Amino acid sequence: MTPPPKNHLWRPYTQMKTAAPPLAAVRTDGARIVLADGRELVDGIASWWTAAHGYNHPHIRAAVAAQLEAMPHVMFGGLTHAPAEALAARLAALLPGDLDHVFFSDSGSVAVEVALKMALQLWLNRGVAGRTRFLAFRGGYHGDTLGAMSVCDPEEGMHRRFGAALPTQVFCDLPTSPDRVAALDACLAEQAKTLAAVIVEPLVQGAGGMRMHPPAVLATVARLAKAHGLPLIVDEIFTGFGRTGTLFACEQAGIVPDILCLSKALTGGTMALAATVATGAVFASFLSDDPAAALMHGPTFMANPLACAAANASLDLFETEPRLAQAQAIGERLAAGLEPLRGRPGVADIRVLGAIGVVHWETVPNLAAVKSRFLERGVWVRPFGDIVYLTPALTITEPDLDRLIAAVVAVVTEVTRR
Ligand SMILES: *Cc1c(COP(=O)(O)O)cnc(C)c1O
């Protein structure tokens, strides 16, 4: 095969003038990425947190291959199919409470857009006007499309330049102290009549900087939303499917949101798929003799059968293999391995939750230089902002995990030496 043309791709989050050229990947297997030049990298990120079972899992590949023979895709308007029916039923059974109504889409951002739209339309369907805004939390990240951008952190987030073009939402700090609980309560009391919903990432704000909060904080968010009569949207796109040590992060707080978003690891990293899941009460608000009360959304590739087959196979693996125990074991190893960095000059914090390990720098180092040091050590680790983190496949072997941890310890030590 001829090498790919160099100048036609516009790359994600990339300054195309100055960025180092991307590495050509030709193969993946388990927790490894093989490059065109023959190098093999241990993956510390599981491809943006998607490849929970490692790459190329034979069970998922077989399920997708079988579905490819039968029916790669069919439109979802007026038609249905077994992979989607089974997946929706399985998600409903796994999710807490009566989160029973599953709306499929093809990316996390769109799952968030659908959740926001559901919340807006639910008030309209109940005949309540004026509830057009959302309460979101500082430090949050919910996606890259316009509606999702509007609920991302407005000051520190990657979308701050778009502020003027976005709907203005209400931002609060997570209620991590008595003062902040009171502030959130007061803000909700003042704004409740203009708000359609509260949106939160449970237990860890991922792309906003891997900031973690205890389950009690999430429980407080849920309690206050309910006290002010507001639906709660929980964005489990990063946290879902074992990443925080439980299948879903909201389990740890014992809460049942009104709407919940899933994507990232939903198909085990194989295909693009997302889901917005609603409770019975939310769903009931859309039942009417008026056609205009229907949820007005419908992606062309909604419930793509290949993606649903991959997701069903991924759920099989969560049932038959000890993924949550693996996540916990990874967490213990990350905590022990990263601990020596705690208190080092230049290191602000070390934090671990489930299979997420984070080193937080005091000042942002030269990230391009840091990235190349990781490559020299044969690992795929992508620091951003003031953090470097590990979120490996839950199936990663101990030697590979140790290699990732050793690389982080070595690189952070080198970078903070001066
Ligand atoms: C990645 C992510 C999204 C956006 O998902 P995409 O598939 O990239 O659109 C939204 N919310 C959270 C919490 C995420 O981690």
Automatic annotation (TrEMBL):
Origin species: Methylobacterium gossipiicola
Q: Pfam families recorded for this chain?
A: Aminotran_3 (PF00202)
According to its UniProt record, which protein family does this protein belong to?
Answer: Belongs to the class-III pyridoxal-phosphate-dependent aminotransferase family. BioA subfamily.
Give the UniProt subcellular location, in the record's own words.
Cytoplasm
UniProt keyword terms in alphabetical order: Amino-acid biosynthesis, Aminotransferase, Arginine biosynthesis, Biotin biosynthesis, Cytoplasm, Pyridoxal phosphate, S-adenosyl-L-methionine, Transferase
Q: What cofactor does this protein call for? A: pyridoxal 5'-phosphate
Q: What is its main location?
A: cytoplasm
Q: Which InterPro entries match?
A: Aminotrans_3, Aminotrans_3_PPA_site, BioA, PyrdxlP-dep_Trfase, PyrdxlP-dep_Trfase_major, PyrdxlP-dep_Trfase_small
Binding, pyridoxal 5'-phosphate: 108-109, 235, 299-300
The molecular function terms of the Gene Ontology recorded here are:
adenosylmethionine-8-amino-7-oxononanoate transaminase activity; pyridoxal phosphate binding
Tell me the route in metabolism or biology where this protein functions.
Answer: Cofactor biosynthesis; biotin biosynthesis; 7,8-diaminononanoate from 8-amino-7-oxononanoate (SAM route): step 1/1
Q: How does it assemble?
A: Homodimer.
List the EC numbers from the record: 2.6.1.62
Q: Where is this site: Participates in the substrate recognition with KAPA and in a stacking interaction with the adenine ring of SAM?
A: 13
Q: Name one GO cellular component term.
A: cytoplasm
The record's catalysed reaction(s) read: (8S)-8-amino-7-oxononanoate + S-adenosyl-L-methionine = S-adenosyl-4-methylsulfanyl-2-oxobutanoate + (7R,8S)-7,8-diammoniononanoate
For whether the record's keyword set contains Cytoplasm, the answer is yes
- On this chain, the residues bearing N6-(pyridoxal phosphate)lysine are 264
Q: Which GO terms describe its biological process?
A: biotin biosynthetic process; L-arginine biosynthetic process
Does this UniProt record's set of keywords contain Zinc?
A: no
**Name of protein:** Adenosylmethionine-8-amino-7-oxononanoate aminotransferase
* List of residues binding substrate: 48, 141, 264, 298, 382
